[in-house]
Amino acid sequence: MIELTTVAELRAHLDAARARGRSVGFVPTMGYLHEGHASLVRAAARDADDVVVSIFVNPLQFAPHEDLDAYPRDLDRDRQLAADAGATVLFVPGVEEMYPEPVATTVSVAGVSAPLEGESRPTHFAGVATVVAKLFNIVGPCRAYFGEKDFQQVAVVRRMAADLSFPVEVVAEPTVREDDGLAMSSRNAYLDDAHRTAAPALHRALAAGAEAIAGGSSPDEARAAMHAVLAAEPLAEVDYLDVVDPTSLESLQSFEAHRGRAVRLVGAARIGQPRLIDNIGATVPAAAD
Ligand SMILES: Nc1ncnc2c1ncn2[C@@H]1O[C@H](COP(=O)(O)OP(=O)(O)OP(=O)(O)O)[C@@H](O)[C@H]1O
Ligand SMILES: CC(C)(CO)[C@@H](O)C(=O)[O-]
Ligand code: BAL
């Protein structure tokens, strides 16, 4: 694995690789890598000859009150994990390299950015879309791998790549979980012991909602089932729990148009210091004859 820090070096390296007929897989990250990231790198390595992992804690996607300065970092460990999972290129640009001047151009994706995370973090997805657009332009034609743990982010990036005709195929990979169901996340490092014990309640709530849907519940009943689980966990403070259309992310009031089809249960909760997000899929039972 080689390590590059400038846009010019990465472009030159990948242009030369593609000229030799090599395909490129790309895994954008903010570092502090874990098994969830490793699963994306392994998926990319199965499909492509060269696998680029970027590590860049993007200031644009953090609101002023959020954890930009405290965001966990461990570049030595990240190098090892990325190489072991099959990365061939580690791209670690500094803020000066990515943003030599304050950006005047922002990419914002209307519609899918607005609900859920967008309500709690109104500037977040424009920051994500802007940096991902830059990274796609730097990396060039590739398949890019994202985790379903950030379900809304995948929807935003897919829509941006389609609307702006990026030569990038966006691939979503399943969420990797701890044994007790907690979705792996770099921010889990902020959990102290008591909150770490409480944290799987978010996944349990989503699972209870999915079970209710499988048993014929309405969207409101599924939401109530999720809230009941988190209400029993005093260390969890709910931000939202919802059942949404998996493409538009619109909150569902009825399952009539979704009989026999997939829906998504999504949730966010503050559990101690970190605000954790998670989601799972469910299929609405087909209408009885
Ligand atoms: N548990 C996971 N399973 C699969 N993919 C994941 C998982 N956690 C993160 N990813 C994906 O890894 C990519 C990089 O994410 P990022 O570096 O922000 O990690 P993170 O653990 O989500 O961090 P944070 O805790 O800040 O949300 C994203 O596409 C994200 O969806
Ligand atoms: C996609 C991403 C690397 C953009 O900064 C980030 O939002 C993340 O790590 O999910
Ligand atoms: N994985 C999402 C990145 C963020 O919360 O900023």
From TrEMBL:
Functional pathway: Cofactor biosynthesis; (R)-pantothenate biosynthesis; (R)-pantothenate from (R)-pantoate and beta-alanine: step 1/1
Taxonomic superkingdom: Bacteria
Active site: H37 (proton donor)
Catalysed reactions, semicolon-separated: (R)-pantoate + beta-alanine + ATP = (R)-pantothenate + AMP + diphosphate + H(+)
A Gene Ontology BP annotation from the UniProt entry: pantothenate biosynthetic process
Matching SUPFAM superfamilies: Nucleotidylyl transferase (SSF52374)
A GO CC term attached to the entry: cytosol
Location(s), subcellular: Cytoplasm
E.C. number(s) listed in UniProt: 6.3.2.1
Binding site for beta-alanine: Q61
Positions with a binding annotation for ATP: 30-37, 147-150, 176, 184-187
Keywords: ATP-binding, Cytoplasm, Ligase, Nucleotide-binding, Pantothenate biosynthesis
Residues that, per the record, bind (R)-pantoate: Q61, Q153
GO molecular function: ATP binding; pantoate-beta-alanine ligase activity
Subunit structure, as described in the record: Homodimer.
NCBIfam families in the record: cyt_tran_rel, panC
Note: The reaction proceeds by a bi uni uni bi ping pong mechanism.
Protein family: Belongs to the pantothenate synthetase family.
Function: Catalyzes the condensation of pantoate with beta-alanine in an ATP-dependent reaction via a pantoyl-adenylate intermediate.
Protein name in UniProt: Pantothenate synthetase
Native species: Actinomarinicola tropica
Gene symbol of the encoding locus: panC
